[in-house]
């Protein structure tokens, strides 16, 4: 199933509960603007390379549009469209004054030099600089991009429009970035995992956890949960699944990754190394955290999953067919638009600080993040209980209701 179709099915299920009529559904779901651009750079060897870049601006009823930039070979218009719509519901679920957007380039950054990635980023900004801005659409990191890419993006954008660091978030801390943005998504995932397990009566020692993807989100979620005494029994990246039924020493695993020339888990010796896909079907896993690509749990592999809790750190990891099977089995799924909202929440704090020319302490960022995530969690939990629906359905109902209200107040057709 294509990514946007998946998102649409989840949207429709909630819209049905809310009794939203078809033409309004269409208006809420249809992206406001989709831009596709050619991104051509000179490779280090002097040859030319052409890529396709996208920015989909889904909705701005609640404020400027917000969402990350992904550099990955699978990036295409359908995926970016789906990710952009998820941003609209996500910013609404955590009640940030934003709409939703997403962008990316179909490229494999692991096969490029640092200078090539810089040229690629600057060439992309040359193509889209006039549709993004601090009051219109504010990008941020996602898969394959980091604070360095954000710094290049800002620098190139400011060549056209002048000083304004609020044009992008997730910047280096010393260059107008917020303390705590890098850890924010993983920290939010970790704190809600702890909260959900407690709510379901599962003690940390019994919450054996597996994390797919060990990049920004996966590493910080692992760190938080390890410190909360959850046994992390497996983690994976593209080099394999690293498994210890008694729990990995996450400090040691993180040290290994830090010392690996490409930041990979490859070569980590103090556990079993299994094939990449083995992580999903490990029998002794209670909490499964997909933290890499979307569409990784489908009708093909759903029956191999043994976990009783799935935390969607990635965007769109479970497709609707698999979701239905998991619901039937009683698996609790914390949906992406709530679980991974810590990143955009601290992006919002960064944007606020940039606009006020003021800096918050890390303690303040963490405190406000925890407050926002807790409030959103409680709201989603209560809505699910009151309406007897899944947490995903409840989260969509909250998001859609807020966006619909803002759109109606503004005058839908104006
Ligand atoms: N960064 C953020 O703030 C936010 C991210 N997200 C979502 O979280 C997810 C991860 O993003 P992020 O951590 O930033 O991305 P990164 O690029 O930092 O890390 C991605 C990780 O996933 C691994 N990976 C890719 N494919 C597979 C696979 N098939 N099996 C196992 N591991 C795999 C990569 O391995 P390798 O290194 O070997 O390539 C890498 O470890 C995405 O879905 C993103 O949209 C959501 C909200 C905010
Ligand atoms: O930090 C942001 O603005 C957006 C992060 C993002 O892309 C996401 O939540 O999926």
Quick tags:
414 residues; alpha/beta; Rossmann fold; 2 domains; seven-stranded mixed β-sheet; four-stranded mixed β-sheet; 45% helix; binds NADPH dihydro-nicotinamide-adenine-dinucleotide phosphate; binds 2-oxoglutaric acid
Describe the structure.
Residues 178-411 form the Glutamate/phenylalanine/leucine/valine/L-tryptophan dehydrogenase C-terminal domain. The active site is at 102 (proton donor). It comes from Rhodopirellula maiorica SM1. NAD(+) binds at residues 185, 216. The record marks 142 as: Important for catalysis. The two termini are 35 Å apart. Helix 9 links the parallel strand 12 and strand 13. The protein is of the alpha/beta class and 414 residues long. It has helices at residues 3-17, 22-29, 77-93, 114-128, 147-161, 181-199, 216-227, 250-259, 320-329, 336-339, 342-356, 362-387, 391-410; strands at residues 33-42, 48-59, 65-66, 69-72, 100-106, 137-138, 209-212, 232-237, 240-243, 272-274, 287-290, 309-311, 332-334. The mean pLDDT is 97. Strands 10-9-8-7-11-12-13 form a 7-stranded mixed β-sheet, with helices on both faces. It has a 4-stranded mixed β-sheet with strand order 1-2-5-4. The protein has a two-stranded parallel sheet with strand order 3-6. It contains 13 helices and 13 strands. It is 45% helix and 15% strand. The protein folds into 2 domains: 30-178, Leucine Dehydrogenase, chain A, domain 1 (Rossmann fold); 182-339, Rossmann fold (3-Layer(aba) Sandwich). Helix 3 (77-93) crosses helix 13. The chain binds NADPH dihydro-nicotinamide-adenine-dinucleotide phosphate and 2-oxoglutaric acid. NADPH dihydro-nicotinamide-adenine-dinucleotide phosphate binds at residues 141-144, 185, 212-218, 236-239, 264, 276, 291-293, 313-315, 340, 343.
